[in-house]
Specification:
373 residues; coiled coil; mainly alpha
Length: 373
């Protein structure tokens, strides 16, 4: 515990020991370059790997100095040896060139000795024809050797026989292989035919069984139909006998009556609503008439005056007493009368027409609605 605490205190700030240990465990025994190792460790160190890179640079410089001291003389010696070898090789090839050049000149001199007019350009273009023209070769006749010919024929026949024997053995082996393959295919064919035969026999047996069952079912169905027909006939006969004995004919079926379609009458609520709206409009008109201001009565001294005093501009404004006196009743304005007429016309249009009665008295909305009690 003390050692662990001391290690944590000695670790600089910003250094992640756990991550570094994790990287070391992952690397293990793997061989990686030093700069890659430094790049992996640097993010988890306090100085982002600056010290590691400095140490790496110093090690590289020291190694370069050591390499110069140790290998500089060695490289100089090797270069000197290679230079000497190159010089010796150049001398060797120069000597060989001189030798081949001398041989070539000797051959050319020999050619000119045998053919003084020899043309190398025509020889390059024509070759064999030019040589036959300049230096014709003598034709040597063929020497026939009967014994040699016989030996050649025997040798040819022997090799032919050996080839035929080897070919016969190969064909025999191929024939045996093909016969074995044929036997295998025949066996497979026999097995497949046996399987198909068994399947056909099973299918035929199944078909015969189904045919037998079908025949039995048909017989049962025929018997059932006959028994049903017989029972129908017997039942009909018994019914007829009973009716004949009782002297009663079978009741006839009454024709079905068609249902009459009832016409749905309009609900009385719409008519009641129209009546209520009509009453509301009339009450509104009456309230507007009652809310009108009373007529203004002037003093007695001004009732006989035909004109009023002049205004500030000096002009006199005519003032006439309305017809019937100031105390007479006034009618509502023309606009109010027009609105009342429009409301009454709207009520008359929206009021539904009563339907004619169909055998039963139709009750009106006034007879059915009891009002707001």
């Amino acid at each position: 515990m003390i050692k662990r605490n001391m290690a944590r205190r000695q670790a600089p700030e910003g250094e992640d020991i756990k991550s570094i240990k994790k990287i070391l465990r992952e690397i293990g025994t793997k061989k990686i370059p030093v700069h890659e190792f430094i790049n992996l460790i640097s993010p988890y160190t306090a100085d982002n790997g600056a010290l590691l890179r400095l140490v790496l640079a110093e090690d590289v410089d020291a190694f370069q100095k050591l390499a110069r001291k140790v290998y500089e003389t060695m490289t100089e010696d090797v270069s000197d040896v290679l230079v000497n070898e190159q010089l010796h090789m150049m001398e060797f090839y120069q000597e060989k060139r001189d030798i081949y050049l001398n041989k070539m000149m000797a051959a050319i001199n020999e050619i000119y000795d045998m053919a003084p007019e020899f043309d190398f350009d025509r020889y390059i273009r024509e070759k064999d024809q030019y040589l036959h023209r300049i230096l014709p070769f003598p034709v040597i006749g063929e020497v026939r050797d009967e014994e040699g010919n016989e030996m050649m024929k025997r040798q040819q026949a022997y090799h032919r026989l050996q080839w035929l024997r080897s070919e016969g053995e190969r064909l025999n082996e191929e024939n045996k292989r093909l016969m074995n393959r044929l036997d295998q295919l025949k066996e497979l064919q026999r097995v497949e035919q046996q399987k198909m035969t068994d399947m056909a026999e099973r299918a035929e047996a199944k078909r015969m069984q189904l045919t037998q069952e079908e025949r039995i079912k048909k017989d049962e169905l025929e018997q059932l139909n006959q028994s049903v027909s017989k029972s129908f006939v017997e039942t009909e006969t018994e019914i007829k006998k009973e009716y004949n004995m009782m002297g009663i004919q079978p009741p006839e079926e009454e024709p079905k009556k068609k249902k009459k379609l009832k016409v749905k009458r309009p609900a009385w609520i719409s008519e009641a609503a129209v009546e209520i709206e009509d009453v509301g409009v009339k009450e509104a008109i009456a309230s507007e008439r009652n809310a009108m201001p009373p007529p203004v009565r002037l003093p007695v001294a001004l009732q006989s005056c035909r004109t009023c005093p002049a205004d500030q501009g000096g002009r006199g404004l005519p003032f006439r007493q309305p017809q019937g006196g100031f105390g007479a009743d006034r009618r509502p304005p023309r606009q109010m009368e027009t609105n009342i007429e429009k409301a009454q016309a709207t009520i008359q249009i929206r009021r539904p027409q009563p339907e004619p009665s169909r055998g039963r008295r139709v009750q009106g909305p006034k007879e059915t609605w009891g009002g707001f009690n």
